Structure formats: structure tokens, C-alpha cells
Amino acid sequence: TLQLIKKSVESQTALLKKAINLLKQGKEMVYSTCSILSNENEEILRKIRKQGNAEIVPIEFEGMNQLPLLPTKIQGTLCVSPNEFYEGFFIAKIKKL
User: Fold this and answer.
1) Which residues make beta-bridge pairs with 89?
2) Helix (H) or strand (E) holding 92
3) CB count, 10 Å around CB of 16?
4) How many Å separate Cα 32 from the centre of its chain?
5) 34 is annotated as an active-site residue
């Protein structure tokens, strides 16, 4: 429901803000959700990036082109489409500035 999504967005935003605050400058972390919805992924990252203390580190690895990827609004992030092998998820690598 829309109410559940709204609660998830609020929780995920708070958790990610806290995690970035705890992350040491120059270090990296991974943000991942079991959702393919933009408002639970890219929109949260946009809010966080506006604070100016974090940047997206592009994710690249061998075999990445074999994943069933969905388009994302933030370059360097991945959104894997649900299929017979995956339930669908989003992943981003974040570096604290």
C-alpha cells in the first residue's frame, strides 16, 4: 500500500542518514534494498546527496552485463529486475566525503 511504502521510505532514509553519519570520511558503504521502486531507492539517495557529504561510487564487476538490469536515474547504481532467479533489488555504493 502507499502507506507502507511511505513508512519504508521514512525508515530507510533515517537508517541511511545514520549509517553515513557513522561512516568514517573517505570510507565506502553499500546501500541495498529488496525493492525496485524509485522512491525507495534513488529518491532516498538524492536526499542524502543533497547534504553534500556523500557521493555515489559506480558499481562495476565482471559479468554485470548478464544481470537483468532495470534503468536507474543515478549513474553507477544497479536495479536488478525480478525474474526466475532474482526477486528484484537495488544496490548503490556510497563514499563519505
Assistant:
1) 80
2) strand 89-96
3) 20
4) 5
5) yes
Cell 521514512 identifies what position?
10
pLDDT by residue (tens digit) across 36-82? Answer: 999 999 999 999 888 889 999 999 999 999 999 999 999 999 999 99
Q: What is the pTM of this model?
A: 0.90
Residues 73, 76: Cα–Cα separation, whole Å? 9
CA distance 86 to 63: 15
Give the gyration radius of the chain's Cα atoms: 14
Cα–Cα distance for residue pair 68/13, rounded to 1 Å:
26
Would you state the cell numbers that stand for residue 97, as one nine-digit string?
Answer: 566525503
Per the prediction, the chain carries an average pLDDT of 95
* Active-site annotation holder among 1, 2, 25, 34: 34
pLDDT tens profile 9-45 = 999 999 999 999 999 999 999 999 999 999 999 999 9
pLDDT value of position 62: 96
